[in-house]
Write a structure and sequence with these properties.
The chain is globular and about 35 Å long. The chain is mainly beta. It has one domain. Helices cover about 5% and strands about 45% of the residues.
């Protein structure tokens, strides 16, 4: 599910199962609420991220249950030169009251695709079940910067 260039979006009370790729991807949007989702992806399938806020402002992800073969939440903000040129950070992101299962990846990842920067990201009161790592970071490419990253 990809939501692009949108304001005042709420995605709530859905069950998403067996997606072949990212489950929820709000991009270039503001005032996004993702609440009460159940995301069930096979833990042996790669690239099945749960929720990937990408270049969004004022996003709240809460009260979700995520099982993933990749990152449960991957914070993104553009990719390579395009992301640098577009220059739209993900900022004012709150992640709270989530339950995660991700045996092989991070439950919350500061993803490789973050050329636009990441600012004011807060995660609290979440529970990881069988994680390999609670918070992960994938190193940026040469073109990308983490200078605006705060966690």
């Amino acid at each position: 599910m990809e939501i692009m260039y949108s304001d005042d979006v709420q995605i709530s009370n859905l069950t998403l199962m067996n997606s072949p790729s990212w489950n929820v991807h709000p991009v270039y949007s503001s005032n996004v609420v993702v609440q009460g989702l159940t995301i069930l992806a096979p833990v042996t399938s790669p690239n099945t991220d749960g929720i990937n806020p990408d270049s969004c402002t004022n996003t709240r992800i809460e009260d979700c249950y995520i099982v993933s073969g990749d990152d449960c939440v991957a914070v993104k903000s553009g990719w390579d030169e395009y992301g640098i040129k577009f220059g739209m950070p993900t900022k004012q992101l709150v992640i709270r009251r989530l339950t995660y299962i991700s045996p092989f990846s991070a439950v919350i990842a500061l993803a490789r695709e973050m050329s636009g920067g990441i600012e004011d990201v807060r995660a609290k009161t979440s529970q990881a079940l069988i994680p390999s790592q609670l918070l992960g970071s994938k190193p940026p490419s040469d073109e990308e910067t983490m200078s605006k990253t705060y966690t």
